[in-house]
Amino acid sequence: MKDYLLSLLLDLDGIEQDPYYHPEGDALFHSLQVFQHAHQQSDQPLLWAAALFHDVGKACGSKEHDKVGADMLRGVLNERIVWLVEHHLDLLIAPSQTKRKLRKHSLQLKQLQQLRHWDLSGREFNAEVISPQQAITLLDPYFTQIVA
Questions:
Q1: What is the DSSP secondary-structure string of 34-72?
Q2: Per UniProt, which keywords does this protein have (predicted)?
Q3: Which of 10, 49, 81, 136 is 20 to 30 Å from 144 by CA-CA measure?
Q4: CA–CA separation, 6 vs 53, rounded Å?
C-alpha cells in the first residue's frame, strides 16, 4: 500500500501545470507544499493525506484530475479522504452552490475549506519541501486511520 501511494506521488514529478495558476512548478512540488501546510496547521492525519494526494489524478493528464484521483484512491484510502480529493475543486468551481449543498454537513465543509486554503497556499516558487518518502513516513503512524 505505501509503495502504491508513493508511486502515485512520484508520478507527479515533472507534471507541468498552468503557470498562471501554479507558478511554483510541477504537481509534485505543489502537492508537497500543500501537505506541509496541512501538517503544520492541522492535527488531523486524514487532512494531511487529503492534502498530499489531492492532485494525484494530474499524472493521468485528465482535465478531471479530481475525479480521476479519487478513483485512484478509492478502496485504498479512507472514504473521507477520497471524498475530499474528489471535491477539492468544488469551492473554486461553484463556491455558493457547494456551501449551500454542505450547509447541514459543517465538518465536511470546514475540511473542504481547509483543503482549498492549503491548495491555494501551496504555490510558492522558492518553498523548501520534504521528499515524498518523508511525507509518507510522517503519515506512517496513522495508516490505520487513513486506509480504507
A1: HHHHHHHH-S-HHHHHHHHHTTGGGGGT-TTHHHHHHHH
A2: Nucleotide-binding, Transferase
A3: 10
A4: 10
